[in-house]
UniProtKB/TrEMBL annotation, chains A, B:
Family matches, as InterPro entries: FAD-bd_OxRdtase, FAD/NAD-bd_sf, FAD/NAD-binding_dom, FAD/NAD-linked_Rdtase_dimer_sf, Pyr_nucl-diS_OxRdtase_dimer
Keyword Transcription among UniProt keywords: no
Known cofactor(s): FAD
SUPFAM superfamilies, per the entry: FAD/NAD(P)-binding domain, FAD/NAD-linked reductases, dimerisation (C-terminal) domain
Family statement drawn from the similarity comment of this UniProt entry: Belongs to the class-III pyridine nucleotide-disulfide oxidoreductase family.
Keyword line: FAD, Flavoprotein, Oxidoreductase, Redox-active center
Pfam families: Pyr_redox_2, Pyr_redox_dim
Residue ranges of domain Pyridine nucleotide-disulphide oxidoreductase dimerisation in the record: 337-439
Segments forming domain FAD/NAD(P)-binding: 5-312
Protein's UniProt name: FAD-dependent oxidoreductase
Length: 460, 460
């Protein structure tokens, strides 16, 4: 019997995790695996780019979890710098373009994995392509930005966007000695938080010496006589800049899949079932930043570009492709980040997410510390908890604070997954010792307050 | 109508939390509250004593959450230095001894809360009462130890016991510049861990310069010509000591309650229902270190002396005493600690706990890091996971490592509470960003390995 042929499109986390897991389950005599990657790197941590730029991490090699050679050692026919330019679903083949040779060819598949990732949102504005304007989506992007920074003598950096990438890049540029201005379209930085919690991030960024301009709608990139970037214009002001970093977010890269007739959802990502199989296609799987995932709290799909999900998807896909079994049940929307020593964690629904799916809710916000108040290094943290009206079911948690703030949302992430009420959470047996927590962990304090608010609201 | 009368025995976490919560629900015209405390302090953090001794914390005031005066301001009739010496259950009265005046009197109650705490295990050995031998159970103990340290010129400290108090006191004495020897009766330090994980703690303590002697059974305390402690003798050796710290653990202080005919369990603690009402007694509640609590994983009661539980008990008792409603459903056995930069976390059952209740289990142990491997400060941690044979239900987690190790058990604590399987845990949406976690959080890596072990064992 001829070996089954698996084609993988995309050589980063989801694609190569799938390929590797499939290979663990099926040897080369049972399955041949061809993987296409259009860039220079495989299996790398894009999330590490801000820390590479900021000088915390040696790059780019340190950010590569597995090199092309290592994948080839596992009998994966990895074709670097080769872009898939067409999918023929009915004919079970893909068209590949070798970017080095310019050659185009078709390759057949029995099974296929689509892991084409996401692309940065790059608004079509005048000057956007000027030297000195950089995205930070890939290792290639990071390399290009670092080359610019080496050549640039000016010290003014403008970061466009105040989400995860934006605030992390603000920290990175600050660490490199730049004067940093963040231009944020929204009313508060970190739109993944409610505005009241975003305000805390804004204040902390102020304290770190990062200027954040809210409500700033970028209209054009200004250039100097040399054609290089010289500033950023918004609706109502101009910000001089020696370098501009774009951190506006990403959208699923699904042009290829859509052209092939594969189904996408309301957020532009491919739609799959819980085994990560593309809906309606028995032999095609998709995972990573190009898919939509089920939000277990909201009960609908979302697009979340995050390496940890991509790795899980790859693992699940590889198991299923290789004849095993795995599912990705969905997400609760956990994310953590930091700006210097400010930590930010969130999971579940924001107020507006709850309202958007028709959930009535109450909120409770408390201040506590990450260690016993008397223990050295105890620093404040603010915990906001959102619970369903009447039932008291946990809907979301947001935490902004210093050491120990971000990862505390993990407790809430598990509670959300388990469908716990805030009242049940007050009895959680969380680790206590003075260096690690007050006697009531901040999450428990928030749960206690939420219980009181739920009761008061329910009896009103 | 005359006000109802509540008597509280014990002025620390459980007792005073109960009194305070009852007072919130019932004003002085509805309920009079009399609380007895035999010592000098109320509502203090005994867990903070090692850090006070180690010089991290200013004591003792910083360790007091609420002073007697503050309690009195809330209309609680607090009688300090007054010991309850008898309970007359049928007569609904207690006998109190004022230690200052020597006066004894009886006081009636409609409702009573017993929060008598725990007492340190103090083996009856020759020399145990010699000057220079100290327990560290109360603020008074801490004060006495510090006075000894001020007077002592020698630099050799022997700590008896290698549980939480023992290892924390080893750190404290090391920080004060002592040469520290820990005498441990067991085969490994930290008997709340399995021996394979305890070995990691032992190695780390070695690395910190703390000498740990396992299998050391103390036979006597040696004294010098001045009557002060001069060393500790075990079965097979003698350890010179200028100061000896006892950290052998505690047992429930229930003599008074037992004498009154109240029910105690197999571990010597008072037995209550889930509202913390003493079994068989409609108007008596008990909480804190003097009760047994339900272990939700093992399905039987245990004795765990921990401030966080005591506070929860007090909250629940106060609600019920005050006419509200609250329950303490039980514990999963979470505990965290540290020795210098070594962090230790555990929750759920050890191997021997599982075996003791007849559960068949498998184990999986992995090594990972607390941050992305490439991120500065990424330090190793070892995670051991115990899962039920066949079902894969999580039974316990132990973590030993550096920064971020201890509180990671909280995720497992919630998963245990929710009855999750290790397979369900592999899909948990835990926070990921390079400064906070590898792309697979160590708990997820352990869960993945545990799934493989469960499958292999189940098909064998």
């Amino acid at each position: 019997m001829a070996a089954e042929r698996l084609v993988v499109i995309g050589g980063d986390a989801a694609g190569m995790s799938a390929a590797s897991q499939a290979r663990r389950l099926k040897g080369p005599d049972e399955m041949s695996i061809v993987a296409f990657e259009r860039g220079h790197f495989t299996s790398y941590s894009a999330c590490g780019v801000p820390y590479w730029v900021g000088g915390d991490v040696e790059g780019p090699d340190a950010l590569v979890a597995r090199t092309p050679e290592e994948h080839r050692d596992h009998a994966i026919d990895l074709r670097m710098r080769t872009e898939v330019t067409g999918i023929d679903v009915a004919g079970q083949r893909v068209r590949a373009l070798d970017r080095e040779s310019g050659e185009t060819y078709w390759t057949g598949f029995d099974k296929m994995v689509i892991a084409t990732g996401a692309r940065p949102v790059r608004p079509e504005l005048p000057g956007m392509d000027a030297p000195g304007v950089h995205g930070v989506q890939t290792l290639d992007d990071g390399q290009a930005l670092l080359e610019t920074l080496e050549r640039t003598t000016g010290r003014r950096a403008v970061v466009v966007g105040a989400g995860y990438i934006g605030v992390e890049m603000a920290e990175a540029m600050l660490k490199r000695g730049y004067e940093v201005t963040v231009l944020n379209r929204g009313a508060r930085p970190m739109a993944t938080l409610d505005p009241d919690m975003g305000r805390l991030v804004h204040e902390a960024m102020d304290g770190l010496g990062i200027t954040t301009v809210n409500g700033a709608s970028v209209t054009r990139i200004l250039t100097g006589d040399d054609g290089r970037v010289s500033g950023v214009a918004t609706d109502d002001a101009t910000y001089p800049a020696d370098v501009v970093v774009l951190g506006i977010g990403v959208e699923p890269e699904t042009g290829l899949a859509r052209a092939a007739g594969l189904p996408t959802g309301p957020n532009g990502g491919l739609l799959t079932d819980l085994t990560m199989r593309v809906r309606g296609h028995h032999n095609i799987w998709a995972g990573g930043d190009c898919v939509e995932v089920l939000d277990l709290v909201a009960g609908r799909t979302r697009h979340i570009a995050l390496g940890t999900h991509a790795n899980k998807h790859g693992q699940v896909i590889g198991s299923n492709v290789g004849g095993g079994y795995g599912t990705f049940p969905g997400v609760v929307g956990t994310a953590v980040s930091k700006v210097c020593d400010l930590e930010i964690g969130r999971t579940g629904l924001r107020e507006k997410d709850a309202a958007a799916v028709g959930l009535r809710y109450v909120t409770a916000t408390i201040e506590s510390t990450g260690r016993a108040g008397y223990y050295p290094g105890a620093r404040p943290m603010t915990v906001k908890m959102i619970a369903e009206y009447r039932t008291g079911r946990l809907l979301g948690v947001q935490i902004v604070g210093r050491e120990g703030a971000a990862k505390r949302v993990d407790v809430a992430a598990v509670a959300l997954t388990a469908g716990m009420t805030v009242e049940a959470m007050t009895a959680l047996d969380l680790g206590y010792a003075p260096p690690f927590s007050p006697v009531w962990d901040p999450v428990l304090v928030a749960a206690r307050k939420a219980v009181a608010v739920v009761r008061a609201a329910g009896s009103a």
